[in-house]
C-alpha cells in the first residue's frame, strides 16, 4: 500500500461511520466491484431525477456562470 493511500485511509478512519461507508462504496465502485445499493430519501431522489431531466433537455449551467463560480473559489 502506498503512503498516500495509507494517509487517506487514516483520515477516513476519523470520520463518522456513515461517511466511512459512503467513501468505501465509492472506492469499491472505482475498482469495479459491485457495491450495495444506496437508498435515497424522497427529497434527494426528486432532486437527482430533476437534475437528470434537465440534462436530458440540454439545460446546463452556462460557461459564464461556471467561470464566475471558479473565480470566486480561486480555481
Question: Can you walk me through this structure?
Answer:
- The chain is mainly alpha-helical and 75 residues long.
- The protein folds into two domains: 1-38, no CATH class; 39-75, no CATH class.
- 67% of the residues lie in helices and 0% in strands.
- It has four helices and no strands.
- The radius of gyration is 17 Å and the shape is extended.
- The two termini are 31 Å apart.
- The model has no long low-confidence stretch (mean pLDDT 92).
The count of β-strands is 0
The largest β sheet comes out as: none
Number of helices: 4
Overall spatial form? extended
Structural domain tally: 2
Unreliable spans: none
Strand content: under 5%
Mean pLDDT over all positions: 92
**Secondary-structure element order, as H and E?**
HHHH
**Which oligomeric state applies?**
single chain
Structural class: mainly alpha
Task: Name the descriptors.
single chain, 2 domains
Offer a concise description of the structure:
This protein has 75 residues and is mostly helical.
Topology:
Layout: H1 3-13, H2 17-30, H3 42-56, H4 63-72
